[in-house]
Amino acid sequence: MRQLWVDHRQKFLLAIFLVIAGVFLMFFVSHDQSLYRQPIGRVITVHETSRRKTTDEFKNVDYQMTQRLTVKVMNGLYQGKIVTVNNRYSKSGALDQHYRVGQEGFLTQINHGRHGWSASMNGLKRDTILVFLLWLALSLLILLLGSAGARAALSVVINFGLLLGAISIDLSLQASHVVLIFSILAVIFTVVTLLLVFGANLQSMVAIIVTLLATFVSLGICLLAMMWTNQKGIYYESMQYVTQNPRTLFIAEILLGSLGAVMDESSDVVATIFELKRVDQAADFSKLFKAGMQVGKSVMGPLINVLLLIFFASTFTCALLYLKNGNSWGYTFDMSMCLGMVQSLAAGIGIVINVPLISGLAAYLLGRGD
């Protein structure tokens, strides 16, 4: 045990620090009601007052329930007041919320009547669980991957900030340059991420060049296919609540979706080729190229399947809703899966194109002197 402590002393100390930081962080976010402008209430008691069975024309059965909640106001002008909330919810929970004792939610319409204080509850306060998951992900990255994990986490934070900035610019320009804005964003994403992963060296330069090349080539192929088919079978009306040109927004989605998959593959292949060259200085172009192609073929299938699984998971609930309301499989696919399938196919094209490109360029740069 002592030897284990000596060998991994820094890891243990780091783990202890992260656990202590997590405890303090959880305590803070569970008592941060004063930071919110909107009143927040904590559920003290719950009583179910009614339960009613409902059946629609498609024989879908649901239950409508009503709760009477006793809620304590935690912040704002009415802090400390005990209010009564009547909450109607369904068992399916599609558009409403079932509340339990100890949960916190946002209050509206607080007023005083003949029967005391009353209010409405409009959704849960979810910052505690979100912060916990964020802390857990960051802690695992740092503990298991060390500085590489910290850089990966930093790249996520930076890219998220860049995405918010790009969206703000898009809105300020009234969505007049969507494709240009997100094309520039894709370049910045690639440069920032790969520089943080590999550092400022030849390895990152190769990965950046080929990632961008494969991404934009796959986007170009997708646009040509859409042009030749006159976009038949692409139903932009399924992009609900979009108030700008759905076609340009869809192109931006294809671009960013393809970029992530291609960048992942590029990192794997280029890291393998550079490591092979480091171990075997005599490796020539042919050997390096074959190694890159072999790695690319190995990760290509799982990566494409990951994209499809993510796509299926993102559309599952919507597709189920269409089917449960009497729609055919064809109409369900058109309205809930069509655009996601096109995005997955575009990313798959980028993944396939990327393998020979990244293998060839990396092998050429490292093997040209042999």
Automatic annotation (TrEMBL):
Keywords: Membrane, Transmembrane, Transmembrane helix. The keyword Ribosomal protein does not apply. The keyword DNA damage does not apply. The chain crosses the membrane at residues 12-29, 128-146, 152-171, 178-200, 206-229, 303-323, 343-366. InterPro entries: YibE_F. This is YibE/F family protein.
